[in-house]
Amino acid sequence: MTALLEHELIVQERCASQRQHELQELLSAAERAALLSVSVEDLLRLLGAVQAQVHACRKAVVSEARATGHSDREVARMLKIHVNDFVSRFPAA
Questions:
Q1: CA distances (Å), 88 to each of 11, 31, 41, 52, 81, in order?
Q2: Alpha helix (H) ranges present in 3-93?
Q3: Which of 24, 67, 70, 71 is deepest in the core (most CB within 10 A)?
Q4: How far apart are CA 43 and CA 37, in angstroms?
């Protein structure tokens, strides 16, 4: 296996691991929101945290998509946003 291919596989594995972590965090946040019977203010703050976690999940999935060879144009199309908007929201690392 070439060093470049080995590096690409390591990056892909790291991205997949990050995706799994972010999705687990999202599930935990959603479960907390569902279980709490709190004030509207507290629930809105919690939903803000869930929204931030959704964005973290998107970033992780976008990183994984890039690592597996998907172009920005392809990923933007899947997210149903304009490619320029996509590039500004998800700058390449």
A1: 22, 31, 31, 17, 11
A2: 3-35, 40-67, 72-79, 83-89
A3: 67
A4: 8
CA distances from 83 to 12, 28, 80 (A): 23, 31, 9
Copy the structure tokens of residue 22.
């972010």
Q: Among residues 49, 62, 54, 46, which one has the least CA distance to residue 22?
A: 54
How many other C-beta atoms are found inside a 10 Å radius of the C-beta of residue 72?
16
**8 A C-beta contact, residue 20 and residue 56:** no
C-alpha separations of 72 from 37, 54, 77, 87, 91 in Å:
41, 19, 8, 7, 10
Over residues 25-78, the pLDDT tens digits come to 988 888 877 777 678 888 888 888 888 899 999 999 999 999 999 999 999 999
60 neighbors 15 (Cβ within 8 angstroms): yes
Q: Position of tokens 């569902």? A: 34
